[in-house]
Design a protein that fits this description.
This protein is an alpha+beta fold. Among the domains are: about 150 residues, Beta-Lactamase (2-Layer Sandwich), CATH 3.30.450; about 150 residues, Histidine kinase-like ATPase, C-terminal domain (Heat Shock Protein 90, 2-Layer Sandwich), CATH 3.30.565. About 55% of the residues lie in helices and about 15% in strands. The chain contains nine helices and eleven strands. The strands form three sheets. The chain has a five-stranded mixed sheet with strand order 6-8-9-11-10. Helix 1 runs antiparallel to helix 4 and helix 4 runs parallel beside helix 5. The longest helix is centred in the middle third of the chain and has 68 residues. The radius of gyration is 58 Å and the shape is rod-shaped. The two termini are about 85 Å apart. The structure holds adenosine-5'-triphosphate (ATP) and magnesium ion. The site of adenosine-5'-triphosphate has 20 residues, from helix 8 and helix 9.
């Protein structure tokens, strides 16, 4: 069986509590009112009885029955009075009139006493306690009255109280219904949202609502979903990376095998070509010979790249002036680019900056980044190199004015064999980052707002005084 929820429980408890309270208070109120009204009513009837007894004294003394009847008749006109009887001292009825009223009936009696003197103050007489029984007793007055009026009034009051209590309980129930709904609704909503998230709607977020507590709950729930999202994205990226690395590793092994296998035949082709050139006295300028030599050189450098990436040489670190080293590298590039419209802007401080590096490896690594920058620029624009030596680090910024790097590729470009160039091997940056890691440095890249890419190399230095 489904258990009742918080909302229903709060409502039921409130309803029962309010009903019990209002009914108890109502019953107490009715009871007190009943007692009060009954005593006032009885007081009134006994007052009337004593008033009649006082007035009947003379009529009894002179035995004037008409007068007594008139007095009794006056009293009978009172709404609740059913019968008025006046008796003489022997208990004989000397006046007795009645009217038809439904019960329940009660009787009140008052003695008719012979007073020695008559005081004018009726109130005084009425309030005075009756004298000792028998003393001056000349008769008595009996008033029969009906309590139906007061009973009806009390029943009407009871019904009013019941309605009032029920209305109060209903109103309280209604108020608590809305209060409890506003308390419980955000929790129910959150539960529903959690169910939808569990079903796969991962974009869904809880609405914060207006109550501070449920707002906190919703925000915590959303934060949890955000962090789950981030975790899932990271996992997906890690999976993708692993898959890529696995295939790269396989590709790498295969490439290495081919490189090894091609290296020896290439050497044989190269020496055979040299022999042919010598035997047939062919000049170096022969077009076919030049083509063959160019292609052999290109294949050779490709194989060298593969092999140097797969089996990096042990670095031989030396203290060198890296600023001077970079000037040399740039000079090499200036020579290589003769005839190219691409300009080189170098900002290399003239002061030396000493670092413990392998100059050959650094030359090749920086060379690869520069080569990419020239390739990105095509045959126009500026490639600029800015070097600085600060905070125990040597910084080299290389920026170009090419297309920049697509955002989906930017985190892949340092992986081996990643290339977007038809003749590229995808090893240039992988090699550069390998070398920079060997020097405990870092390499990073970003696209410039003005266009083009900016590569930054940071290498820790040791200043030699
Ligand atoms: N300056 C740059 N501007 C735009 N894209 C770049 C830049 N440098 C590198 N890249 C991108 O990164 C890829 C990887 O570069 P990397 O140097 O490793 O290999 P490659 O240049 O393609 O081939 P290789 O260097 O072996 O000739 C490039 O194919 C290119 O897509
Ligand atoms: Mg390259």
């Amino acid at each position: 069986m489904k258990k009742p929820g918080i909302h229903f429980r709060i409502l039921l408890a409130t309803f029962l509590l309010i009903s019990a309270t209002t009914f108890t208070l109502g019953a107490m109120g009715v009871n007190i009112t009943r007692k009060f009204m009954q005593s006032r009513f009885e007081e009134r009837i006994s007052f009337l009885a004593r008033y009649l007894a006082l007035n009947a004294e003379l009529g009894i003394l002179i035995d004037d029955r008409v007068m007594l009847k008139t007095l009794a008749g006056n009293l009978l006109s009172e709404e609740d009075v059913a019968q008025v009887t006046i008796l003489d001292s022997n208990g004989k009825k000397i006046a007795d009139i009645s009217k038809d009223i439904s019960g329940p009936l009660n009787i009140v009696e008052a003695p008719v006493l012979l007073k020695e003197s008559h005081d004018e103050s009726l109130a005084f007489e009425l309030d005075t306690a009756p004298e000792a029984p028998g003393k001056g007793l000349i008769g008595k007055v009996l008033i029969t009255y009906s309590t139906r009026g007061i009973d009806n009034l009390l029943s009407a009051m009871k019904i009013h109280f019941i309605w009032l209590s029920a209305a109060l309980a209903g109103l309280a129930g209604l108020i608590f219904y809305f209060i409890s709904r506003s308390l419980v609704a955000p929790v129910t909503e959150l539960a529903e949202e959690a169910r939808l998230v569990a079903k796969g709607d991962l974009e869904l977020r809880a609405r914060p609502g207006s109550l501070p507590e449920t707002r906190k709950l919703a925000l915590a729930f959303n934060a949890m979903l955000d962090s789950l999202d981030r975790g899932r994205e990271e996992l997906a990226r890690a999976r993708e990376k692993m898959a890529r690395q696995n295939s790269l590793a396989e590709m790498g092994k295969f490439s290495m095998m081919i490189a090894h296998e091609v290296k020896n035949p290439l050497g044989i082709i190269k020496s055979s070509l040299d022999i042919l050139k010598k035997d047939f006295k062919l000049p170096d300028s022969t077009t076919m010979i030049r083509y063959m030599e160019d292609e052999i050189r290109r294949l050779n450098s490709l194989i060298e790249d593969f092999l140097s990436f797969a089996h990096p040489v042990r670095p031989s670190f030396r203290h060198v002036d890296v600023n001077a080293l970079l000037k040399e590298i740039m000079m090499g590039f200036e020579i290589q680019k003769v005839g190219s419209p691409v300009e080189i802007h170098s900002h290399i401080p003239s002061e030396p900056c000493h670092a413990r590096v392998d100059p050959d490896l650094i030359t090749r690594a920086i060379g690869n980044i520069l080569k990419n920058a020239f390739e990105a620029n095509g045959d126009k624009g500026v490639v600029s190199i800015t070097v600085s030596c600060q905070n125990d680090k040597w910084f080299v910024d290389i920026q170009d004015q090419g297309e920049g790097i697509d955002s989906e590729n930017i985190h892949k470009i340092f992986e081996p064999f990643f290339t977007t160039r038809s003749k590229g091997t995808g090893l240039g940056l992988a090699y550069a980052s390998q070398v920079i890691r060997l020097h405990n440095g870092t390499i990073s890249v970003k696209n410039r707002e003005e266009g083009g890419a900016l590569f930054r190399v940071e290498i820790p230095i040791s200043i030699i005084n």
